[in-house]
C-alpha cells in the first residue's frame, strides 16, 4: 500500500529517530504534555496525525491500521529517516507492528503505550455498541475515557478529553478505525519476532493493562518487557507525561 505524507512536526534534532503515532481518541496534540520532558539533543521525534484526525481531519482514506502504517512510513521517507523506532499509543501500537512487518529492516524498536495487540481487542456485544456509538455520541466517549482511566479523574479533566476528541477527529474516521484496530488479527505474523519492545501500561487501565500485555505482546515478542506507570490509566501522555518520557528514553538509551 502506498502511503501519503500527512501533517507532522519534528521535536528535537538528535540522531536517535522516533516516529510517534497517536491513539483512537486524540490526534498528535495528545502528546503535547510529553514534549517538555523529552531530550531533543539526543533524539528526534516525529509526531504525525492519522487520516481523519488533527490537521489531517479532512484527508480521505480507508481508515485502517494498514493505511496508518503506510502513511507513517511515507513520513519517514519524507524526513529521510532510513531507520527509526516507533512509539504507538493504543491503536497506534497496532499500526506500529504493521510498520515492522512492512519494513523490518527499518524499525529498530517498538514502544507501545497501552498498545492494542496484533490480535486486536475483542469486545462483547454491549461494549461493542458503546464503542461504535462513541463516533457520534459524546457521552459514550466520556464513559470509555472514564472507565479506562479507572474513574480517577474529575469532570473538568474528562470534559477536556472529550472536547478535544470531538474537535480533532472526524466521526467517519473514528468509527472506521474501530473495525480495524479491534477486529483484525495478524498475531501469527509477529509471533517470535526479535525486535526490542517496551510496553508501557497504566496501573489503572482495566482494558490494556499488565494482564492484557502478558496475554498478548509478552507471549509473542521474546525481547519485550513491561513497565507499569503507577499514576496512569490508558492515557499516559496526559496522565503521567514525565514518567512516560523517562520510560521511553530510558529504553531507547539502553
TrEMBL record:
<dbReference type="GO" id="GO:0016787">
    <property type="term" value="F:hydrolase activity"/>
</dbReference>
<feature type="domain" description="AB hydrolase-1">
    <location>
        <begin position="17"/>
        <end position="241"/>
    </location>
</feature>
<dbReference type="Pfam" id="PF00561">
    <property type="entry name" value="Abhydrolase_1"/>
</dbReference>
<dbReference type="InterPro" id="IPR000073">
    <property type="entry name" value="AB_hydrolase_1"/>
</dbReference>
<dbReference type="GO" id="GO:0016020">
    <property type="term" value="C:membrane"/>
</dbReference>
<dbReference type="InterPro" id="IPR050266">
    <property type="entry name" value="AB_hydrolase_sf"/>
</dbReference>
<dbReference type="InterPro" id="IPR029058">
    <property type="entry name" value="AB_hydrolase_fold"/>
</dbReference>
<keyword id="KW-0378">Hydrolase</keyword>
<protein>
    <submittedName>
        <fullName>Esterase</fullName>
    </submittedName>
</protein>
Amino acid at each position: 500500500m502506498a502511503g501519503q505524507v500527512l501533517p507532522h512536526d519534528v521535536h528535537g534534532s538528535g540522531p536517535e529517530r522516533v516516529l510517534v503515532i497517536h491513539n483512537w481518541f486524540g490526534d498528535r496534540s495528545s502528546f503535547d504534555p510529553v514534549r517538555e520532558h523529552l531530550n531533543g539533543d539526543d533524539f528526534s521525534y516525529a509526531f504525525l496525525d492519522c487520516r481523519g484526525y488533527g490537521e489531517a481531519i479532512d484527508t480521505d482514506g480507508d481508515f485502517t491500521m494498514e493505511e496508518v502504517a503506510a502513511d507513517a512510513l511515507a513520513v519517514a521517507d519524507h524526513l529521510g529517516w532510513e531507520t527509526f523506532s516507533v512509539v504507538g499509543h493504543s491503536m497506534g501500537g497496532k499500526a506500529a507492528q504493521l510498520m515492522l512487518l512492512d519494513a523490518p529492516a527499518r524499525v529498530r524498536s517498538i514502544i507501545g503505550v497501552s498498545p492494542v495487540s496484533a490480535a486486536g481487542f475483542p469486545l462483547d456485544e454491549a461494549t461493542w455498541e458503546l464503542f461504535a456509538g462513541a463516533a457520534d455520541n459524546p457521552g459514550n466517549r466520556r464513559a470509555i475515557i472514564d472507565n479506562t482511566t479507572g474513574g480517577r479523574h474529575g469532570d473538568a479533566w474528562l470534559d477536556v478529553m472529550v472536547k478535544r476528541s470531538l474537535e480533532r477527529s472526524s466521526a467517519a474516521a473514528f468509527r472506521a478505525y474501530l473495525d480495524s484496530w479491534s477486529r483484525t488479527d495478524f498475531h501469527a505474523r509477529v509471533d517470535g519476532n526479535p525486535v526490542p519492545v517496551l510496553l508501557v501500561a497504566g496501573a489503572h487501565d482495566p482494558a490494556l493493562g499488565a494482564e492484557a500485555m502478558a496475554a498478548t505482546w509478552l507471549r509473542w515478542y521474546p525481547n519485550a518487557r513491561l513497565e507499569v506507570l503507577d499514576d496512569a490509566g490508558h492515557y499516559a501522555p496526559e496522565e503521567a507525561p514525565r514518567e512516560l518520557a523517562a520510560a521511553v528514553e530510558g529504553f531507547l538509551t539502553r
